[in-house]
Amino acid sequence: MDKISFREKIKIPRYDDPIQIKMGLIKIEEALCNGCQLCIRACPANAILLKDKKAHLSNIPECMACGDCVAICPQEAITLVKNYKYTGYFKTIDKGDLQPPRFYGVKDD
Amino acid sequence: MANSWETERTETENVILKRRSVRYFQKKQVPAYLIKRIIEVGRFAPSAGNCQPWKFIVLRDPEIIAGITQTVIKKCQALSKLLDYRYRKSFLQKNIVNLLIRFMPNDLHPVPFGAATLIAQGKLKLFHDAPTVILIFKDVRGIGDPSLDCGIAGQNMVIAAHSMGLGTCWVGFAKLAFTGKSEWKKKLNIGYPYEFSSSLVIGYPVGRPDKMVPRVTTAVDWYEDGAKKTFY
Predict the structure, then answer these.
(1) Structure confidence at residue B1 as a pLDDT band (50, 70, 90)
(2) Angle in degrees, CA A102, A108, B5, rounded to 5
(3) Which of A33, A40, A90, B217 is spaced 20 to 30 Å from A107 by Cα?
(4) Between B11-18 and B146-163, two packed helices, what is the crossing angle to 10 degrees?
């Protein structure tokens, strides 16, 4: 397992410091977006807002990379780019990259 | 992200992998028989020593749902004023909150904290205007970890609901309406030995929210044949 040092353990990360807390990130293909606003209603973090009749990741993203917007988009215009990452006391450990559900069959044994 | 594996997976695997939390519901009420079916699969969840330390309350009265929401909004407003350590300005508040986080790291985690502020501002609806809410209470005298058992029962219900084409979302914030001195404990006749565990909202989704999406992988240590491998 990944280690958390004593120094990291005693440090509470600052929510407003992008170096200490990196929120999730999505990419919206504006050409595909038809402004249906389903992603805005699906987002639990209020991170997506409407800008020029297109969905837009707002200035202060609170994105937790849940993928609910990616799933509900009928135009498949949204992709998940990054998971969130914290440092210090809440350090994110033992995580790899973003992967869709994988399938393992007999040949993978 | 549909792929050819979908047919090779079991139906249960596909329901679980496609399940997304749903926060946008149609006004249409879910038939009572479906809710009863969902609770029935919760009843058959595994629990420590078969103690079944749960109690379910089904809310389908909009007034009660709105009332609980109002109580939680009021508590969230007070909480975010006192404790919101994001963008904090005062040195004293920063240090008091930093100390509190060490004692309550789960309640004061940055992610739910963002949600508390959104609920206080009315930007995030507590029960997402869902027509049916199931409150899950734990019997605190249960064996081992009653909260875990309630979670297992709840997830059984969630999977069953999604297999019926319904949408669900776990709502932990309703806890605020059942902690401390609260009118809702009296109104819903809840007392010892029951304590709020979590709640589920159920309804017909708007759009098609259930789909497979990428998710971060987690390190798995695998010990076999005297060697250790880690895969993601």
Answers:
(1) very low
(2) 40
(3) B217
(4) 100
CA distances from B29 to A8, B135, B220 (A): 49, 17, 42
A5 vs A12: CA distance, rounded Å: 13
Which of B207, B13, B218, B31 shows the shortest CA–CA distance to B132? Answer: B31
Tell me the Cα Rg of chain B.
Answer: 20
Contact between B109 and A90 (Cβ < 8 Å): yes
Q: Which chain B residues contact residue A98 at CB under 8 A? A: 214-217
Closest of B139, B102, B108, B130 to residue B200, by C-alpha: B130
Quick check: A6 contacting B, CB < 8 Å?
A: no
Cβ–Cβ of A72/B114 closer than 8 Å?
no
Amino acid at B198: S
pLDDT tens digits for range B170-199 = 999 999 999 988 899 999 999 999 999 999
Based on the number of CB atoms within 10 Å of its own CB, is B125 exposed (0-12), middle (13-18) or buried (19 or more)?
A: middle
Task: Give the per-residue pLDDT at B109.
Answer: 82
Bridge partner list, A50: A55
> How far is the C-alpha of B170 from the C-alpha of B137, rounded, in Å?
14
Residues of B in contact with A100 (CB under 8 A): 1, 3, 212-215
* Chain B nearest C-alpha distance from A24 (Å): 11
Q: What separation in angstroms does the CA of B174 have from each of B70, B136, B222?
A: 10, 10, 39
Query: Could you identify the residue written with the tokens 């309550």?
Result: B104
Amino acid making up residue B141: R
| pLDDT tens digits, one per residue of A49-98 | 998 899 988 766 788 899 999 999 999 999 999 999 999 999 999 999 99
Using the beta-carbon criterion (under 8 Å), do A103 and B8 form an inter-chain contact? yes
